[in-house]
Amino acid sequence: MVQRFDVGTRLSEMAIHNGVVYLAGQIPEDPNLGIEGQTQQVLDAIDKLLARAGTDKSKLLMVQIFLVDLQDFEGMNKVWDAWVVPGHTPPRATVQAHLASPKWRLEVVATAAL
Questions:
Q1: Distance from first CA to last CA of the chain, Å, rounded?
Q2: How far apart are CA 38 and CA 67, in angstroms?
Q3: Which one in 3, 17, 25, 70 has a CA-CA gap of 20 to 30 Å to 11?
């Protein structure tokens, strides 16, 4: 059985199947913030979705980070390093990408176990 959350016409915010939680790409709420503020907002959104699913960031299976500008890599990592659970850092990919809005500096896709 597939369980979907916040189903829209284009996408669902989250889906759960066979004990795995799949999140849609998370973007910052305030596009006027710098990379550290936008990263914190995105990671907070991931925390909230994972809690809603009944899991947390210690059970992340994979994270994909899309940065508009690789010059933001250091600032994003500063926030990321403070957020991840030591000893439970997930596999991760970080790539440069054009995003749907030029105001977003990053988008993050995460998958976690229940």
A1: 15
A2: 11
A3: 70
Q: Where are the domains positioned within the chain? A: 3-113
Closest CA to 14 of 30, 25, 1, 29: 25
89: CB partners within 8 A, 6+ apart: none
Give pLDDT tens digits for 32-68: 999 999 999 999 999 999 999 999 999 999 999 999 9
The whole-angstrom separation of Cα 14 and Cα 4 is 6
Question: Do the beta carbons of residue 90 and residue 23 sit within 8 Å?
Answer: no
Amino acid at 7: V
Token pair 């009944």: residue: 54
pTM of the entire predicted model: 0.97
Q: Under a CB-based contact definition with an 8 Å cutoff, are residues 66 and 28 in contact?
A: no
Q: Which residue is listed with tokens 């997930």?
A: 90
Q: Are 112 and 20 in contact (CB under 8 A)?
A: yes
